[in-house]
Amino acid sequence: MANNDDQFKKVISHAKEYGYVFQSSEIYDGLSAVYDYAQNGAELKKNIRDYWWKAMVQMHDNIVGIDAAIFMHPTTWKASGHVDAFNDPLIDNKDSKKRYRADVLIEDYCAKLEAKIDKEVAKAAKRFGDAFNKAEFVSTNGRVLGYQEKIDTILSRMAKSLENEDLADVKALIEELEIADPLSGSKNWTDVKQFNLMFGTKLGASADTAMDLYLRPETAQGIFVNFLNVQKTGRMKIPFGIAQTGKAFRNEIVARQFIFRMREFEQMEMQFFIKPGTQKEWFNYWKETRLKWHKSLGMGDDNYRFHDHEKLAHYADAATDIEFKFPFGFKELEGIHSRTDFDLKQHEEYSGKKLQYFDHEDNASYTPYVLETSIGLDRMFLAVFSNALVEEELDNNTTRTVLKLPAVLAPVKAAVFPLVKKDGLPEVAKQIVDDLKWDFNVFYDEKDAVGKRYRRQDANGTPFCITVDHDTLEDNSVTIRHRDTMEQKRVKIDDLRDIIKKEVDVKHWLQKMK
Ligand code: ATP
Fold first, then answer.
1. pTM of the model
2. What are the φ/ψ torsions at residue 308 (nearest 5 degrees)?
């Protein structure tokens, strides 16, 4: 496809056209950075959530799931540090009146330098052919080393300034690098300010007794405040985890990348409670385990990379992101954080309740350390969807648009067609739908020529099409067509369930994590 921008536009319009994602309140011109999942999107999202839940909760006998409320006692957010420190550095452009995240402007500048490195590498690879050694090239080529050094210097200065709350230096950096407003080209910037991302609301009817609340900006705190309840009622022994999925809300400053950064989104988080001192080992374990989960979906091993944090959040002693190659480049998809005992200790302090674990083996109590895995469901949706959308050149010089969703995640598993709308074929096709719908989401379509129906299902991401023809009436067999290979096979109606199951079954996919 032409370029990344075009590809991203195609992703957004395909998501709308095929009933995956709509802009919220579109008839009122939409609401910025808020989206609705449509008939297919809701299914895909549910399937991703289930895939995560099964891998995390069902497959681990020491991880359980909960579903905490979005509203929490306001002191929660004092204790967690969100009231004081959940800020982003924002900067306004005085000419365009557009608002940006100062750190993102600087990161984007570095991404451009990185693109230059990639260009040098691609050029050299072409020049040297098979003899090309990428590792050697990037560690010796003067130009590449120069770019890399510049990136490192910029990022570490930014990290230090943010850490020290030296916002004047963040602005100075933007000015020194001559970063311009990407939309207007203007370099006329305001000072950098901190902006709290939590949405406030009120609980209660009368103005004087109403309590100020926040919509939760992450699901994690619902797990921490329930740590002891779950540990006791579930008789959980350390190490153990608590998982949950649910909505989170952030008043993001810049939200211009479709469902990548939304103001209302869904997280899938797991907090793993461990013995202090074992955090390094568990950090590595979860890094590896989460990457395996991603790779099990077969979306291309080269599309993932780790990005270890230089600037650690106030609660962490180690942190990494799993980055994915989105149409606009490598960006954070999931975070893995070693949170120490920060959260439980804070909640102990603010609530006055003990949140400790008695270790029978050691005959001692301690505040557990925590390892967190945190992934945005919507961001995962975008990763899956954008990676799946391809335009394929066919042998007969035509192209087809295919949504190569991992079959386990596809909203519709099979579409069933009568070849023609007569001679009893629709009745047989409908009977097949009635039989299969107990096990899978299936779809019946009799409109247009069969070729057109195939293409519609290709673009919709449906892994199988089943066609009933006149021979079916004689021999109870049908044609099953595979979305990715377009291969067609004649099979018995009675075998359909097993054929489909083999490919869409969670077990078949999750086993790849082993
Ligand atoms: P970013 O740096 O992109 O703002 P973050 O580091 O603040 O993300 P975390 O607080 O670690 O993100 O949240 C965990 C995960 O939640 C992220 O990896 C991402 O997948 C998802 N997420 C965070 N903010 C948003 C958002 N505004 N919209 C959609 N998903 C989000």
1. 0.88
2. -75, 140
